[in-house]
Amino acid sequence: MTDTYASDLLRLLNERGYIHQITDADALDALAAKQVVPAYIGFDATAPSLHVGNLVSIMLLRRLQQAGHKPIVVMGGGTTKVGDPSGKDEVRKLLDTDGINQNIASIRRIFERFLDFSDGPTGAIMVNNADWLDQLGYIDLLRDVGRHFTLNRMLTFDSVRLRLDREQPLTFLEFNYMILQAYDFLELSRRYGCRLQLGGSDQWGNIVNGLELGRRIDGTELFGVTTPLITKSDGSKMGKSVSGAVWLHEDQLPHWDYWQFWRNTDDRDVGKFLRLFTDIDLSEIERLEGLEGSAVNEAKIALANAATALCRGEEAAKAAETTAMQTFAGGGAGDDLPSAEIQAAEISIVDALLALSFVASKKEAKRLIDGGGARINGDQVTDEATMIASTPETVKISAGKKKHGILVFSS
Q1: What contacts 71, CB < 8 A, 6 or more positions away?
Q2: Whole-number Å distance between alpha carbons of 120 and 66
Q3: Complete domains list, the chain, with CATH
Q4: What number of other Cβ atoms are within 10 A of residue 146's Cβ?
Q5: CA of 353: how far to CAs of 336, 367, 381, in Å?
Q6: According to the model, what pLDDT value does residue 89 have?
C-alpha cells in the first residue's frame, strides 16, 4: 500500500483510514483515476435493521460515491437463506422468503440516508442476489462454478477452520456460502460492470475467491479492498454496547441512545471514529483530536452530532444534544430521553429500572442500588424497596452517570 495515490477514491479511503488490504493497488488506482468504477458490498437481511458494526461498510460505499464512483448495495435475499458462517460459532436460524423481503425493505431506508440513489453514472443501486441465485440449477452450479473451488483451500478459510477447530457443527449448506458469494461477484460483473468488491477484513478470502472466479470464467480483471477490523480501544467490537446491539433504525433504538453511544466514545477512539463515521473536514478533525482534558468533550459531542445527523437526521441530532444539556448540565430531564409509561398508582425503583431497560433482571437492579448507582430525580436510592408514587410530573430515573430515562404515570 502507498500513501501517494493518483485516484481520488484511494486517496480518500487512505486519508480516512479505511484501507487494510488491496488486491492490486496500482491497477485499481489507475482504473479509478480514469473511469467510474462500480463497486459493491453485500449485506445479509437477517434483521429489519443493520447495526453500528455494519456502519463502516455503509460509510465505505458513501466514500466511494463521494469520490465519483457507483455504489452497488447487494442485499442477500439468496445468501441469507444459506447463512454466512464467518465469525459464527453456531448455525444461524434461517428465515423464509417473506421475512427476508420485509427485512430488505426496512434496511433500504437506512441506505437512502447515506447514499444518493438518483439516476446517473454514480447513482447508487440496490440489487437482490436472489434474482440470480434462485435461478441457479444445482447441477449446473456444481459443474460450471464448483470445479473452480478445491476442498483443500476451502478448509483453510477462517470461517470454516475455526468452526471445525472448536468442534462446532458446520452444515454443508453453510459450506457453500463462499461459492455463492464468489458467484455474486461474477454475476455483478456481467450485469452491472462491477469491478470492485469492498468489505471487512474477515471477507478477504471470499473477495479473493470472487475475483479469481471472474478471471477464470470470463477473463475479467476484478479487484478487492478490505477495511481493518474496527474495534474500540478496550478491544471490544464496534456495534455492541452494554445493553446490546446499537441498531441504525430508530424502530430498534431511540435517537437518544444512538447519540449517547457516540457521545460515550473512549477518548482514544474519537479521532479514528470522526474520520470513519462523519463527513467532518480532516483539518477540523485534527483540531478536535488535539483537544485535551475536559475539552475532549467538544470532540465527542461533534462526533455524536455528526454521526447521528447522518443516520437519523439533523433534527434527531439537535434534539439529542439538547436533551443531553438539560439532563447533564441543567440537572433536568430532556424531552428526548427514553421513557416508560406506568399504568399504576406506584412502582418500585427495581421495576422502574426494568421498565426503562436499564437492567436485565431484578438481581442486576438490586446490585445497582446496593452500589449507589440508582437515582430518582437526582437523589441517590439506597433501599431496593423504595416506591415511586404516581405524580402528574415526569420522574427522572438514572442508572449510573450515563443512563437516564423518565417515568410517565398515566393512571
Answers
A1: 39, 40, 41, 61, 62, 64, 65, 115, 124, 125
A2: 14
A3: 8-227 (3.40.50.620), 254-329 (1.10.240.10), 339-409 (3.10.290.10)
A4: 14
A5: 18, 12, 12
A6: 45
Q: DSSP string covering 3-16, please? A: S--SSHHHHHHHHT
Per-residue DSSP letters for 257-318?
HHHHHHHT--GGGHHHHHHHH----HHHHHHHHT--GGGHHHHHHHHHHHHHHHHH-HHHHH
* Cell numbers describing residue 197: 468488491
Whether the CB-CB separation of 410 and 343 falls below 8 Å is answered with yes
In whole angstroms, give the CA distance from residue 339 to residue 343.
Answer: 13
Q: Whose CA is closest to 41, among 130, 129, 106, 167?
A: 129
Residue list, annotated binding site for ATP: 240
8 A C-beta contact, residue 115 and residue 124: yes
Q: Which residues does the annotation place in the binding site?
A: 40, 177, 181, 240
Burial degree of 389 (CB within 10 A; 0-12, 13-18, 19+)? exposed
Whole-model pTM: value is 0.79
CB 13 within 8 A of CB 19: yes
The answer to whether 102 and 109 are in contact (CB under 8 A) is no
The whole-angstrom separation of Cα 16 and Cα 10 is: 10
Cell 455528526 belongs to which residue?
A: 306
- CA 9: distance to chain centroid? 22
Q: Residue positions in the annotated binding site for L-tyrosine? A: 40, 177, 181
Mean pLDDT per 10-residue section of the chain, whose length is 411 residues: 83 97 97 98 93 95 98 92 55 76 96 97 96 81 73 69 69 72 94 96 89 94 94 74 78 89 92 97 96 93 97 94 73 64 84 87 90 84 86 77 78 58
Amino acid at 292: E
Residue 279, CA distances (Å) to 283, 309, 317 in order: 11, 10, 15
User: Could you give the CA distance from residue 294 to residue 90 in angstroms, rounded to a whole number?
Assistant: 44
User: Residues 17, 285: contact at Cβ < 8 Å?
Assistant: no
Q: Give the start-end residues of each E strand in 80-151.
A: 125-128
Non-local (6+) Cβ contacts of 341 within 8 A are 408, 409, 410
Backbone angles phi, psi at 151, to 5 degrees: -60, -35
